[in-house]
Amino acid sequence: MALPPAQTFASSLLQSASHLANFYSTTLHHIASSFPPPRHLLPLRCLHAHLLTSGLRPRAHLINHLIHLYSLSTDLTSSLYLFSQSSPHRDSVAATSLLSAYASSGRLDLATQIFDMTPVYIRDTVFYNSMISAYARAEMGEKGIAVFRRMLCDGFQPDDYTYTSVLSAAHSILNLYLGHCQILHSAVLKCGIGRVVSVSNALISLYLRCDCGASAQHAREVFDSMPERDELTWTTIIVGYVRKGWLYDARSAFDAMNGKFYVVWNAMISGYVQSGFIADALALFREMVSKGIPLDEFTYTSVLSACVNGGLFGLGKSVHAHVLRAGPDFSPYSALPVNNILITMYSKSGKVELARKLFDEMLLKDPVSWNAMLSGYVDVKLIDHALALFDSMPCMNQMSWMVMTSGFVNNGRAEDALALFNMVRGKGFEPCSFTYAGVMAGCGDLGSLTPGMQLHAQVIRYGYESSNSAGNALLTMYAKCGVVEDAHQVFLTMPYLDSVSWNAMISAFGQHGYGLDAINLFNEMVLQGIYPDRITFLTILSACTHCGLVDEGFHYFNYMERHYGITPGEDHYARLINLLGRAGRISEAQNLIQSMPFEPTSVIWEALLAGARFTGDVDLALHAADRLFKATPHLDGTYILLSNIYSSEGRYVEAANVRKLMRDRGVKKEPGCSWIEVSNNVHSFLVDDTGHPEIDMVYRLLELINAKIRKLGYKPNTKLVLHAMEEGDKEYLLSRHSERLAIGFGLLKLPLGAPIRVLKNLRICGDCHAAIMVMSRAFGREIIVRDVKRFHHFKDGDCSCGNYW
After folding, report:
1. Beta carbons of 781 and 775 less than 8 angstroms apart
2. Nearest CA among 731, 641, 741 for reference residue 694
3. Which DSSP state fits 11?
4. Quick one: pLDDT at residue 1?
5. Measured in Å, how far apart are the chain's first and last C-alpha atoms?
6. Whole-prediction pTM
7. In terms of CB atoms within 10 Å, which of 2, 277, 625, 688 comes out highest?
8. Cα separation of 173 and 166, whole Å?
9. How many CB atoms neighbour CB 97 within 10 A?
10. Are 390 and 404 contacting, i.e. CB atoms less than 8 angstroms apart?
11. How far apart are CA 731 and CA 721, in angstroms?
12. Omega before 38 cis (within 30°)?
């Protein structure tokens, strides 16, 4: 609207100040209705400038309108200037507009300043409501309640909007008790607004925010007493029930609903998915489709999550087709969460190529998209693809680091996990407790105790010691590094123990040869009311196996089904068969196999073959190996074990034939390797090693060691050399096993009296076991060896395994 010069306009068209004021008021209304914020700012400034040059002294209603329109724009400075200059004419309308504008822009400090500087005599109920509402939106409940109390003290009468805001503010109170809710409820009833829909909705929401179990009943009473209900009413009570996990109550309210409120349907489906009721979620989705209720990105995300969690990938593909048909209705922002869950679905179904195709075609990606694709590669063990994607990520977060480090650890690349973690720390990035858990698992796999202890210190520094994931990882790390005492100390100091914690500690005791401690801990777990699961019984059976506790093993095998209804799986049967075989009760092991409710698998035949080795039953070994050759023809352990059994019985021709069969089939034996950590560096040794830079010093020391332990009664067991050669050559070969080289290096480099911790990728041989027992007595050192099956603690000429291994 063109504005003539003020003097001409005032003299020729408008002869009085009232007419001029009406003109400006009409023009302000025209600007407000014609230009949405903040596009109205330019014409508003033009009109304001015209008003200033007109000579008119505007009254309060014009100033209030200007303040209001400036407040709706980005020019809050002009609003505040007008407000401060209008002291004689200042009223609650202007103060409320400015307060609300500052609160909406995130400047709650200035909103509070406006509130405090406004005299009580010009305040009104709306003014107090705006301040309470501002604190409620900022989740500063205590301050909102304080303003409400001040309002009552100042003599103002609350209205329904006041109580709606106060109830919303109370939501953010941390320690919200049922009594707080009831006090506010009583105030609402006393004020006579208990039947106002918005107030009742806020009351229902507040009751469901309270952690007290009785609060649900109070919420339902408010709901039932409402004469009218709107969409928010149904949404509030059903979503509240779902968030509490009270699906029965949620479904009861849902079935009583008489409207097609798609938000409520989405909440109900999401609740079923999160609680694992996949069939109920899918049934509700089908009903939703049949009734023509609109589907949105939240619907599809929940349903696809149900398909992923239930392994229903075929159905998920059908839902994807449904999404594609609705595709034109989705904006890139709406499609984003759907595409993210589709990436996860295709990755978990093994179709990572389709997941990557979908990922590349996405118009919009967020960190969840990148992490979903990263997890997809890690899950299918395409770790190099994962690393390439990781390096190209534009936005990394804690989840990205956690997925990548865990991926390295789970794919046998613990060194890379530690290197990545150190790089992250070097960039000043603070890892989360789950990342620490993954890296500590890598330290456990490597047996790197010193880095693991450093990580423990960092966990304490950042306050993650109360995290179960970090605590369980610490416990396992110490156990895998051979320090079971420290593992037990971590267990005893954890603030909360879950089943994973108990299982890890029982397993640690078992692997270290403390079978009775493992049994005592299991009994304590039961007394504490922790429900044992199938993993618990696997660990206790393994503990019995390592210590030869046959009767106890039978007891727990039967106990798991009789008392807990856990049907033994093939892994439980394998543990018991292994236990019987080690004890020489091979016929009982065969009878157990015949009584199994399923056909024996390779796990069972491996256990039987190991048992045949202890008894020297060649025919049984051949029978078990024949089954394994058919099931897992490329497993090197079968050939080696059968060859060793033949050789131990002097049947060298058959042993040679087995090794030839192994070569013909292209199966390669994993070379024996042992490693030891010295001064934060890991030193590896192979059998008859020549590659280590200090190997000559190690061999010279081993010659002296062999001479010393022979004087103490050690005699090489050359029967364990399963090749036809001279006796002296056999003794020479035994003395150059990798574990002895690692121990010799430890004796050279570690401080006097320090424990020697060695890790080996294969089972320790019988002759080395005997030699190390004597070494521990000869040098007064504790020597700890972790082989592929268990730990051996050598001290004062004895071993923790009691020669039962």
Report:
1. yes
2. 741
3. I
4. 46
5. 97
6. 0.74
7. 625
8. 11
9. 23
10. yes
11. 9
12. yes
